[in-house]
Amino acid sequence: xxxxxxxxxxxxPTEATAALAPLLxxxxxxxxxxxxxxxxxxxxxxxxxxxxxxxxxxxxECTKQKHHPEWSNVYNTxxxxxTTHSPPGISGKDVVMxxxxxxxxxxxxxxxxxxxxxxxxxxxxxVGVEGGDCCVPKKKx
Length: 141
Ligand SMILES: C[C@H](O)[C@H](O)[C@H]1CNC2=NC(N)=NC(=O)C2=N1
Prior knowledge:
Elements: H1 13-20, E1 31-32, E2 38-44, H2 48-65, E3 70-74, E4 77-85, E5 88-89, H3 92-107, H4 118-130
Antiparallel strand pairs: 1-2, 2-4, 3-4, 4-5
């Protein structure tokens, strides 16, 4: 069974499908998350310094877009997942940020990485438990 993408309710499916297609394998390098609500991939660099520089370039763009990643880092590799928490699914911002990451990584000399690395993915899952109360619309008191 292949996972189907689940788009955020504010992202028109036709537009979403067209935008997502070039990012996904084999055209692009991204894979759907197991639940279909996000896209993820590892970014590997020559060493920690380059990888951290990459993450340091992505971070201010997240602030600008008001959209945060679920990510982890071990040495020379950043594992990035883009998903939208509210409304849940893949949104236009996930697509924008995935493209941004691809572009920046290319400029920074991304190197070939092996396929989805379970260690990095697991770290993303774990940190997601801690940060799991993000993006929940604030209750009016
Ligand atoms: C108010 C603020 O814009 C929202 O909480 C944003 C912040 N960043 C976000 N990032 C992600 N990945 N998903 C969201 O739903 C989200 N919501």
